[in-house]
Write a structure and sequence with these properties.
The chain folds into two domains: 137 residues, Periplasmic binding protein-like II (D-Maltodextrin-Binding Protein, domain 2), CATH 3.40.190.10; 98 residues, D-Maltodextrin-Binding Protein, domain 2, CATH 3.40.190.10. The relative contact order is 0.20. Helix 6 links the parallel strand 7 and strand 8. Helix 1 crosses helix 2, helix 1 runs antiparallel to helix 9 and helix 2 crosses helix 9. It is built from ten helices and ten strands. Strands 4-1-5-10-6-9-7-8 form an eight-stranded mixed β-sheet, with helices on both faces. A two-stranded antiparallel ribbon has the order 2-3. It is an alpha/beta fold.
């Protein structure tokens, strides 16, 4: 390591230790595998590993709390010193949160049962479906509301939306290509029991800090994230989780 880089690393670490003594941060996430999920009492996943690596650089040990997205999102909207991950950045959310990243990208699709004859050729066809199951305050639900959809059945738990689709209680639901496979397994079904019918949107996901969080805290996390990128550690974490 070059001398300048070594000095920079020490400064980042020392700065982090000072921050650890000077602020409190609630770190929130949801069950959103493979980015975050609970296994044997521990929160794991690609996003969780990134947060842990950043905290190691900063010298902090704020515990990660797992909540339903609806609750975590409301806390991040209204409380100071909240970090919520991972969150897709949209035009609406960019005004409400402070973002660090991106950690990666994914594509959201409308999904229907594999044996279904339902065809969704475009958004107009999707609007004419009897019902679409969505997860409360997920970026996909927010996007559909913005697009004028009135046939949504909002659920707090994404696992329940999978059951609703496969039991015929709704015609379709919306998931990202990155997270559907493991969500399906948690629902007790094979991922191939659902098939993509229409692409909704492509997006990037980030660490999101509440608007009331001190910008200096966000700056410290952003600098640490940049260091993960520059050192190649972020790439290694992605490889560990097979994240594209």
């Amino acid at each position: 390591m070059h001398k300048a880089m070594f000095i920079l690393s020490i400064l980042v670490l020392v700065g982090g230790l000072l921050w650890a003594q000077g602020y409190e941060l609630r770190v929130l996430t949801e069950n959103y595998p493979p980015l975050t999920y609970m296994e044997e009492g521990a929160i794991k996943g690609y996003g969780a590993d990134v947060v842990t690596a950043i905290q190691k650089l900063l010298g902090t040990e704020f515990p990660i709390e797992l909540h339903m997205w609806e609750k975590a999102y409301e806390l991040a909207l209204n409380e100071p010193n909240i970090l919520l991950f991972t969150m897709e950045k949209t035009a609406e959310r960019e005004k409400l949160f402070q973002f660090v990243g991106p950690l990666g990208a994914n594509t959201a699709w409308f999904y229907v049962p594999a044996g279904s004859k339902i065809e969704i050729k475009d958004l107009d066809a999707a609007r004419k479906l009897n019902a679409i199951a969505t997860t409360t305050n997920w970026f996909t639900e927010q996007e559909l509301i913005k697009l004028g959809f009135e046939n949504l059945k909002s659920m707090a738990d994404p696992i329940e939306t999978i059951h609703m689709v496969l039991k015929g209680k709704v015609d379709a639901s919306v998931y990202t290509d990155l997270t559907l496979p493991q969500l399906a397994k948690e629902a007790g079904v094979a991922p191939n029991e659902l098939k993509p019918a229409l692409e909704l949107m492509r997006s990037e996901y980030f660490l999101a800090f509440s608007a009331k969080t001190d910008p200096e805290i966000v700056k410290a996390w952003s600098e640490a994230f940049n260091k993960l990128q520059e050192s190649g550690e972020l790439k290694s974490i992605k490889a560990n989780w097979d994240i594209p």
